[in-house]
Structure formats: C-alpha cells, structure tokens
Amino acid sequence: MRRVKLKNVYDWVEMRVGMEKPVMEAALHPIPKKTASWWYVFGSAAFTLLMLQVFTGILLAMVYVPSAGQAWQSLNFINHNLTLGWFIRAVHQWGSNFMVAMVLIHMCQVFLFGAYKYPRELTWMIGVLLLLLTLGMAFTGQVLRFDQDAYWGLGIGASITGRVPFIGGQLVHLLLGGPIIGGATLSRFFDLHVFIIPALLLGLAGLHVWMVLKLGVNEWPMPGRAVRRETYMKEYHKLTHEEGVPFVPVALWKDIVFSSGVILAVLVCAAIFGPKGPGGIANPTYIHTVPKPDFFFLWIYTGLALLPPWMETPLLLLAPPIIVLGLLGLPLIASEGEKSWKRRPAAVLIVMLLAVGWGALTDLGTYTPWSPHMNAWSSDTIATKQLKVLSPLERTGAVVFQDKQCRNCHEVDGHGGMRGPALDDVATRMTRNQLIRQVLLGGGNMPAYGKNLSPPEVAALVSFLETLHKPGQKPAVDESTQWVKKFEQKNAISYSAAPPVGTGGASSAMPPATSVASKTLPAKPAK
Predict the structure, then answer these.
(1) Does CATH place domain 384-465 in 3.40.50.2300?
(2) How many whole angstroms separate alpha carbon 312 and alpha carbon 184?
(3) DSSP string covering 423-464, please?
(4) Do 387 and 381 contact (CB within 8 A), yes or no?
(5) Quick one: 30-365 is in which CATH superfamily?
(6) For residues 233 and 254, what is the distance between their CA atoms, to the nearest angstrom?
(7) What residues form DSSP beta bridges with 227?
C-alpha cells in the first residue's frame, strides 16, 4: 500500500517535472571503454568537494559575524564554545585545500590528455574560470579569519591591485570599501565568499558538467590518433558505438570510490590537525610578525619576497593577464593534432617544470622570511647625533617612530628594513601634507595607520620625518603654498600705522573697500 502511494506521488511529480528521461540519458550515455579509468575521477571529486564546501559553509555562516570588531571573536566562539564547531571549521578549511588540489590535478590531466582540443574548447575555458573562482574562494576565505595573516595578506592584495595603471585607486576602493581596511572590507569579502563566488561556481560547474555530457567524455589518447575537425565527431561516435560502455555503473563506481576516499581524507585531516586559526587578532601597528598566506598561495608570496624590487610591479601587472589569456587561448591555437602525451613532449615538460617550480617555491615559503623583513629591530636606536638638534615635538616623533616599529620596513642611517624606501632624505622628497597623507592612508606596500595613531602622534611623527634630510639640503616644499605666502607677504595691508578712530576720519582709519577687494585674489601668474 505504501509503495503504491509513493509510486503515485512519483508519477504526479514526474508528469510535471519530466526529469526521468534526461537523468536516465545522462546516467546511461555511452563512454569509450578505456575512459572508465582512475585517471578520469578528479573532476567528479572536485565537484563533490564543492558540495561539501557549500554544506559546511552554510553551517558556519549561521554563526560567523562579518564585522571587523566581532569576526575574530566569532571564530573563537565556533572553535571553543560551539559543539563540534572546531570540526566543522576544520572540514571547511581542509576541504578548501583538497578542492584546490583536485582542480589543479584535473586541469593537468586534461592538458596532458589533450582534452581541450576540438570540440571541447569551451569546456576547457569554463574550467579555467572555475580554477580562478576556486582560488578566489580560497583567498576570500582566508580574509574572513581576520587575523594577522588575513590582514597583511589583504594588505598585500590591495597593494598589488593599487598598482594597476589609471584605475588602481578605484579598484582598491571597490575592493576595500574605502581607502583602508575596515568593517566595510570584511562585509564585501563576506558577500564575495558566501554569495557571489559560490553562485558563479555552481552555475559554471553545472554548465561544465552539461557540456561534458553533451560532447562526451574525452577518449583515451592514443599515439597517432590525431584530432581533425572534419572527421573527429564521426570517429568519436563510431568509437562509443563499437567500444562504448554506460557511464552508470561502469565509470560511476570509480568516481564514487575515489570521491569517498577524498572526503574520508578531509575528515581525517580535520580530526587530526583541526582548523587553522584564527591567529593573533588583526593589528596593523604590530609589524613584528611573520604572516603567511594559506598553503596554495605560498609560492606567490615566496616569489615576491625573492624578486628584486624593480621587477615586482612589471611582473605583477603583466604575468597574471598573460597567464590567464594563455590558458583561455590554448584551445584556440592548438585545437587539432595529437592528444597523446607520448607525442607531446613539450606538454609534459611544461607540467613538470610548473610542478617543480611550484613545489620549490612553496617549500621555501615555509621558512623564507616574508616582507617586511624582520632583520630590522626596533631596538636599533636612532643615532644620538640626530636627536641632539631636535625639538621636543620632533623627539616625541622619534619615539613614535621607534614604538611603531617603522624601522622594520624603512632604513635610517644605514640601519633598518629593506622592504620600504630608505628615509634618510624623505623630507626632500615629500612635503608635510604628503607625509601626513602617506601615514594616514598608506600606499604601495605600506599599510594605512589612520586608525592606529592619534592626531598628536601623527603630528609628532611627521615633524620628525621632516628632519630627515642631509645637511645643506632644503626640505621639499609645496610650490603653490609658497606662492600664496609670497603673495600675502608682498601684498599685506598694515593697519598698525593707521590713525586712531576719530583723529583722521573714518576714511583714513580703513582703506577703501575697492582697494581691499582688489588685493584679495591674486592675478594669474604669467606663463
């Protein structure tokens, strides 16, 4: 009786939805027999991990507070006060690591097997976008921890974004929600991590799977079996007709076994190693720290740390678009020809070099000092000769300079960090207003200190910086301000010699209104 009722419900839903036919067609669609292999399980494992990330992310979003003042505390509450909260966080974090690994391995397998060639060019392009979105999810997830690693990692990301010509400043404001990292920044990254990127991931992943079903799973690459646009589809259909097997159950069971093993590995890592962070609470004034990005971004941070400064900006601006455009354009310029890696030694060499380079840089990143270099210590005191001639306000600025550990990044009198520019002649390069702006808003590799220094501290620090120039060198001046001062001095109206009211008449006590008005605004200087 119960079976009859369930059958009636199923028939009622099926008549209105009509999903049985497309589901059966997808499950039983023929695939080449040799593709029912363990080499073809990475894509399904990545999709399974995406579903795991969505599930655990929803659970965490119920408790997490995307606020600069409460994000760190909410994560500690999840770790220590919420039942199994630490385990859910650990599963989410390790799931992210495994998902990035699966997507990268899947792309390498597709590249080596030539599966990006005709007619699967668009499938490859969507896969490239899925890789970028997966890395975006990993980065935005790190930011949501809002600890020291997250704060400084975001600062470096904003610094890189700010170097984009013409629109760098606007992009930074769009990314951070303002000129500095604050509450609006965390809200934006929460929206990206929880709503925007997952929606794009799910949509593109669904389209990716649909295209795989429509065009068929790539056949096992055989040496000598080259792709030709005119004959490929006919040859593929002949292959699936003669040697094809249904996807379910021949290939599906391997996908299920491998995906289950990956999920089990994620659970084991989560139970043994636990979640990462949050580390120390975000504090931009405490620079004596060694923040590092998550595992899959270590190679980037190592490369930047080892690069000479003059190469950073060109490489950061040119390398990413070239790499992305190269990946997207690959199937357009190499859509035909051999698929087998045995006949494509260049493809094998590229994958090997990338793997070795990534591994070496990642290994170095586990112990290479990160910028700012910490071989400069705030205990390296300022030379006494510099302090003797300073005013009390300027000496107070020197104390602020030491207390905030500015020397960790900046060199003064041969002592200090090498990351930022040397400050021995900063007074000749920047005016007082420019120094104030740099301290408050930051720029380049320097974080903003507007929320971490009081106005008296800023005034004292800038006064001290204004003393940093070589003997005989004049400090930088604002030409427009100097011109206004000269004009005021030249055209000043003295009232000291005016006769007392009543002795010389009203007209003698005050200059005519027309004369004052004529001297209020200066004429434009001749060009």
Answers:
(1) no
(2) 28
(3) -TTHHHHS-HHHHHHHHHH-BTTBPP-TTTS-HHHHHHHHHH
(4) no
(5) Cytochrome Bc1 Complex; Chain C (1.20.810.10)
(6) 26
(7) 337
Residue 281 phi, psi (nearest 5): -60, 145
Separation between Cα atoms, residue 415 and residue 378, nearest integer Å:
10
For residue 319, the number of C-alpha atoms closer than 13 Å in the C-beta half-sphere is 10
The reported pLDDT for the residue numbered 260 is 97
Q: Which residues contact 450 (CB under 8 A, 6 or more apart)?
A: 180, 439, 440, 441
DSSP 245: E
Distance CA 451, CA 441 (A): 9
Which residue type, as a one-letter code, is found at position 296?
F
What is the DSSP secondary-structure string of 26-75? Answer: HHH-EEEGGGSSGGG-HHHHHHHHHHHHHHHHHHHHTT----TTTHHHHH
Non-local (6+) Cβ contacts of 29 within 8 A are: 213, 216, 246, 247
Q: What is the pLDDT of residue 486?
A: 67
- Helix (H), strand (E) counts: the chain: 23, 4
pLDDT by residue (tens digit) across 312-368? Answer: 888 888 999 999 999 999 999 999 999 999 999 999 999 999 999 999 988 888 765
Predicted local confidence at residue 426, as pLDDT: 87
Burial level of 155, CB count in 10 A (0-12/13-18/19+)?
Answer: buried
3-state secondary structure of 81: coil
Cβ burial of 388 (10 Å; 0-12, 13-18, 19+) is exposed
Is the link from the previous residue into 119 a cis peptide, with omega within 30 of 0? yes
Domain extents for the chain?
30-365, 384-465
3-state class (DSSP) for residue 465:
helix
Which residues in the chain land under pLDDT 50? 369-378, 494-498, 500-527
CB-CB contact of 335 with 121 (8 Å):
yes
Q: Locate 79 and state its tokens.
A: 């770790």
Cα–Cα dist 463/442, whole Å:
17
How far apart CA 429 and CA 438 sit, in angstroms, is 12
Residue 363's pLDDT is 86
φ/ψ (deg, to 5) at 30: -75, 145
Is residue 78 a contact partner of residue 60, using CB atoms and an 8 Å limit?
A: yes
pLDDT per position as a tens digit, 465-480:
888 888 777 778 776 6
